[in-house]
Amino acid sequence: MRVFKVIVGPQDPEEYWGNIAQNTIWHQPWTRVLDNSNPPFSKWFVDAELSLVYNAVDRHVDEGFGSQTALVWDSPITNSKRSLTYSDLKKEVSQFAKVLRDTYDVKKGDRVIIYMPMILETIIAMLAVARLGAIHSVVFGGFSAKELSLRIKHIEAKLVITASCGIEPNRLIKYKPIVDEALIRAEVPELPVIVYQRENICQTELKPGRDSEWQDLIEGASVGDLDCVPVLSNDPLYVLYTSGTTGSPKGVQIPVGPHAVVNKWTMKAVYGMKKVSWRCMVTYSDMGWAVGHGYVCYSPLLHRNTSIVFEGKPAGTPDAGQFSRVIAENQVKGFSLHPLPFLLVGERCDNSTKEWASHHFKVPILDHWWQTETAHPMTGHCIGLGNTLNPPKDSTGRPVPGFDIRVVDENGKHVANGEMGRIVCKLPIAPGCLSTLYGNDEGFVGHRLSISRLEEVLISHPDVVDCAVVGVRDELKGQIPIGLIVLKKHFHQEDLSSLKEELVQQVRSNVGAVAALKILLSVNNLPRTRSGKITRKCIADMAMGLSIKIPATIEDATVFDEIRQVLVENLNLDIPSPQ
């Protein structure tokens, strides 16, 4: 049996997390640590009330640490820097929260979309929304107007907060036109929009009667603090939508209380950070990702560390030396890198990259694993709990306390050591993870269809009569999607190249560049069972160079021979003949 389990402290999770939760300030105590009477809808710190923003900002000011630096914005792409102390942050968050309350009537439970770049105002907006007990949903600026519109509509946003632009190494992305189109697509063209004008970089025109400028609103706001609004522990703090899954949006809902307790705890237990004024943490991630929420914004502030907000890329802003410069200038003690520059997001860090980084940085390089749904690490090398700093080269650590992780086969049976399997996590999962899918409790216990959205776009083209999308290995990104398309009978093959370009652009426009679907292969038919289902697993296995056994229920087994030949010719693979 392959079982990974780490128990730290008391084996009773209620006692364990109840003790840790004592480090959080509550407006109202809990009646029970855990209510697991309706799994998987576990509730932590039942009936308790708190303000996460009080714990992340005001508390430190009240305890005499207002002069400590809370946030440092470092933007080599604009050659700009700016910092805020905890007192500064409290003031700016309070002012913007007043704007939201007094001008837009934002109150507890309302939903606000934030579509902004890596600037301090993004975090100020997040904290201001949460200060009022409202719910924010941050959308990555690289998403298309269509994807933004789906989120605006699904969450029934009360308003949108955006900036005039975001900046890439070689181009400027104007956000406002994307927002304008998204509102039309969402059928809410008059939804209020607050625009932060990046005055020295790019200014945008406002729509009279609907749009307002952030700077003007702040100037008109009343002076003074605004009290934090406490909410129930299991009320949502934020909703973060995952991309490229199903046709309908999938909003991961993270609860306030468990997030405040566990993410603060991970700063010391997982990352080994101490709560002193000179302990800085830099996390190179966009705020639109879970990593940005957890370890650019909330966790460092909850733990009273300094968080560095970096606007730039690993290279080209102007060079790769910016990472080292930021670390050196700020005496960074915690360095977390979103792995996109090296491999596909969510995949393990390859050994050659870890060895290179360890050699040049002269420190241990520790890999860990988690996902949007968990909001904090599932496995890792818990520095603060005494885990080794020299783990085996392929290791992403052991399960973080609270996660009982196992590896099983397709039938749910535990696999032997050294065998491949599926990772499962026993309920109840650790506090701080998703409590449900926003507006979709039924879908929370359903199956995830990760390729449906891409296939939906491909099949919408009039020349495509059938399609299937699977993942294949990629040296740089770990895994990328490829599409197999079946064209209508009288399609002219000389037009295939232009059609592929059109389909790639169609996916990019409807799903976003993050989809990364660039390889399309034309086949005559797809393998279907007699009941009409496409055997995607067989295609995926072949695309990985694995041997397959043709299922007995396949309607036409000869289809696999053509698919194998197409994969061999286009992917340069050695694929065994189907059996």
From TrEMBL:
User: Per the database record, which ranges form the AMP-binding enzyme C-terminal domain?
Assistant: 454-533
> Which enzyme class?
ligase
Xref: Gene3D superfamilies: 3.30.300.30, N-terminal domain of ligase-like (3.40.50.12780)
Tree of life domain: Eukaryota
What GO molecular function annotations does the UniProt record carry, in alphabetical order?
acetate-CoA ligase activity; propionate-CoA ligase activity
List, for all copies, the residue spans of the domain called Acetyl-coenzyme A synthetase N-terminal: 11-56
AMP-dependent synthetase/ligase domain segment(s): 63-338, 343-426
* EC code: 6.2.1.1
What does UniProt give as GO cellular component? Answer: mitochondrial matrix
Q: Report the catalytic activity.
A: butanoate + ATP + CoA = butanoyl-CoA + AMP + diphosphate
Please provide the record's keywords in A-Z order.
Ligase
Q: Return the Pfam families for the record.
A: ACAS_N, AMP-binding, AMP-binding_C
Which family, according to the similarity comment? Belongs to the ATP-dependent AMP-binding enzyme family.
Q: What is this protein called?
A: Acyl-CoA synthetase short-chain family member 3, mitochondrial
Q: Which organism is it from?
A: Lepeophtheirus salmonis
